[in-house]
Amino acid sequence: MPDRPHRGPRLAFRGWRARRPFWGGLLLALGGGEILLTEKASLKVVLHIGMQGLAGYLLPGLMVLLGLLILFNPSQRLFYSITGILLSLGTWLTSNLGGFFIGLLLGAIGSCLTFGWLPDQEPRISRRKRRKQARTAGRSLTSEGVERAA
Which residues does 49 contact at the CB level (< 8 Å), separation at least 6? Predict the structure, then answer.
């Protein structure tokens, strides 16, 4: 067994989450789940379009599946996100206006987040840290100029 320090479960989860479009996949899966729940709602407003409501269950089920695939297979995220946005927009017609707009919006936002995620992007630096780095770089340049003049 290697002498490697044990990382806690929270740090391990943060590392796992950082290597994939976590929030996009989660929102897409939650949007599909919400639409599936509205299909079973006992409201009088519920409407089904399609063959016995089959498309009303198929599209959100595929949305949940795509959300999980984004989480566990992020290498194919572009295909999953494009398919996810098409399914989300398709639920407008087949599943109670996209789960009364909530599931449709969650699915669309999740798909867009996934499509825009870049795996090799440098971590963002806050404005305060950038200013501090610029000041220290400016000081080092002026101190080099003073040393050359002397």
Answer: 55, 56, 93, 94
